[in-house]
Amino acid sequence: MHMLTDISTPADIETLVNHFYGKVLNDSLLADIFKKQIGNNWEVHLKKMVSFWHTLLLNEQHYFGSPFMAHADLPIKEVHFKQWMSLFNTSVDALFEGPKAEEAKDRAAKMAAMFQHKLAYYASHNKKPLL
């Protein structure tokens, strides 16, 4: 049996991001939303996501931006976030184990909850986010 290691290098982050988005692109619920939003800019998107997770998990500043704004106008609901989380957690668990792997899942869950809260707030107040 192959022992899994924890997330510890930029290469680990890249492996996770590529594995996860491979699942997203083949998912019946999420693929069309991502393809419509990202178009042919997958290389740019994947690099941005590697930078984002590198910053969060390896504590080295590589990402600068506002992740929520990219999601503010998407037609996404709770069911989409649940599927995103399922694919993310499955990806982490397939590749890694340890404190950083658990941190990745925890941070993803908190981010999904925050995004859902913000989307609901703006929808119920008929406002557009500024940041």
Summarize the structure.
The protein is mainly α and 131 residues long. The protein is 65% helix and 0% strand. α1 packs across α3 (42-58) and α1 packs across α4 (78-95).
Overview of the structural elements:
InterPro entries: Globin-like_sf (IPR009050), Globin/Proto (IPR012292), Hemoglobin_trunc (IPR001486). The protein starts with 9 loop residues before the first helix and ends in a 7-residue tail after the last helix. It has 5 helices and no strands. The protein has 131 residues and is mainly alpha-helical. The protein has one domain (10-124): Globins (Globin-like), CATH 1.10.490.10. The chain has helices at 10-25, 31-38, 42-58, 78-95, 99-124. Helix content is 65%, strand content 0%.
CATH architecture classification name: Orthogonal Bundle
Order of helices and strands: HHHHH
Could you tell me the number of beta strands? 0
- Name the CATH class: Mainly Alpha
Mean pLDDT: 86
CATH topology: Globin-like
Shape descriptor reads globular
How many structurally independent domains? Answer: 1
Outline the low-pLDDT stretches: none
**How far apart lie the N and C ends?**
47 Å
Q: What is the CATH superfamily classification?
A: Globins
The proportion of residues in beta strands is: under 5%
**What is the makeup of the main sheet?**
none
Radius of gyration: 15 Å
Structural class: mainly alpha
Helical stretch count? 5
Organism: Rhinopithecimicrobium faecis
Protein name: Group III truncated hemoglobin
GO molecular function: heme binding; metal ion binding; oxygen binding
Keywords: Heme, Iron, Metal-binding, Transport
